[in-house]
Design brief:
Number of domains: 2
Helix content: 25-40%
Bound molecules: iron/sulfur cluster
Oligomer: single chain
Shape: globular
Largest sheet: 7 strands, mixed
Structural class: alpha/beta
Strand order of the largest sheet: 1-9-8-7-6-2-3
Distance between the termini: 42 Å
Length: 344
């Protein structure tokens, strides 16, 4: 992979020039020490030293609500909605990039999702290696501290400069207004050192105590474990753990009819397997009516089914579900360790 370096004193000028020419989304501070992805209006707003964003950047690839098509009944006219604005997202962490790569695989499977893929084609990603981790993160043990595809550019803080890996031609073009230099031997050494230090950023208290390759079998063997019933007793079925997860992509499709019944829109909205209505079917039956069944399903989806479908665990270790869950039952770390018989 080609690489360049940019001095930190030059970096804000580059970001400012991108803001002038691109629709730039960046990681920014919000209240109470939290961070979020939002429209970047100045280079000073960008906070590459963040720990985790409240919501992953998936919202720009699969919006919480989008029109799929509009229709007019009188004229039998159906118009697909395909307004995919180009955007550049700056500050994506590796575990979230893994999440996006998983969504790319799912939505380009045999039933290609033209809306997702159309949008994805117009999204450029400038990722960054984390320099901090939230108290709930455990990506160091989930194999997601590094990523080697899906991005256009990737930044690593190496002291007074950023090391930049160039992933695509579009990434190379984004660098055109930047004052960059060739990477020296010292830069390459610093980059290697920064990379190898990534595994030490998450808290040692957030360790997965088993080999992650064994996780699918551990879950399969514990389908009827008491953990599901025990934890689900205090579950609010609020769906927050679905909402914040970078690998949750389930949606519902609804008809939004005009009051005069002459036409309407077909809309797609985020859905979540922890919500009571998620598995209710047309005949009125609900095949995951019990909270414990929904609770177990979410874990099996992450740790078993997606591994079978795309070859990767659908938990990238961001820790957002654990942090968002008020009764503190959603944490994958404690669940994996308990099912492995390796909890403290
Ligand atoms: S299951 Fe939880 S920790 Fe794993 S990727 Fe989803 S939100 Fe992050
Ligand atoms: S596990 Fe927690 S976050 Fe998820 S639905 Fe239940 S209460 Fe809400």
């Amino acid at each position: 992979m080609k690489s360049r370096v940019i001095l930190k004193v030059e970096f804000p000028h580059w970001i400012a020039s991108l803001i002038k020419t691109e629709n730039v989304i960046g990681i920014k501070a919000k209240e109470a020490g939290k961070f979020h992805f939002g429209k970047l209006r100045s280079s000073g707003e960008l906070r590459l030293d963040y720990d985790v964003a409240v919501l992953p950047p998936k919202k720009y690839l699969q919006p919480p609500k989008e029109d799929l098509l509009s229709y007019n009944i009188a004229s039998f006219k159906v118009t697909p909605s395909a307004d995919f604005q180009p955007i550049t997202i700056i500050g994506v962490h590796p575990y979230d990039m893994h999440g996006i790569n998983q969504m790319d695989a799912v939505f380009s499977d045999e039933n290609k999702d033209t809306n997702y893929l159309g949008r994805r084609k117009n999204v450029k990603i400038i990722g960054v290696d984390p320099v901090k981790a939230s108290a709930w993160s455990f990506w160091h043990d989930m194999g997601t501290a590094y990523v080697d595809k899906g991005f256009d550019l990737w930044l690593t803080d190496i002291g007074d400069r950023y090391f930049i890996e160039i992933g695509t031609k579009s990434g190379e073009n984004l660098l055109k207004p930047a004052k960059t230099e060739s990477a020296s031997k010292i830069d390459i050494e610093r980059h290697k050192k920064a990379r190898s230090g990534l595994k030490n950023i998450c808290s040692p208290s957030r360790r997965i105590k088993t080999d992650i390759k064994k996780i699918p079998d551990i879950f399969r063997a514990n389908h009827d474990h008491g953990l599901w019933e025990k934890r689900a007793k205090t579950c609010y079925s609020c769906g927050s753990c679905n909402l914040v997860c970078p690998t949750c992509y389930c949606f519902d499709v609804r008809e939004d009819m005009e009051l005069n019944l002459t036409g309407g829109r077909r809309v797609r909205v985020w859905d979540g397997c922890m919500l009571e209505e998620f598995a209710r079917v047309g005949s009125g039956e609900n095949f995951r009516k019990e909270r414990s069944a929904r609770f177990r399903h979410r874990f099996f989806r992450k740790m078993v089914y997606m591994k079978e479908k795309i070859g990767a665990l659908a938990c990238v270790g961001c820790g957002r579900c654990a942090s968002a869950c008020l009764p503190d039952i959603a944490d994958p770390v404690t669940a994996i360790n308990e099912l492995s018989g390796l909890e403290d």
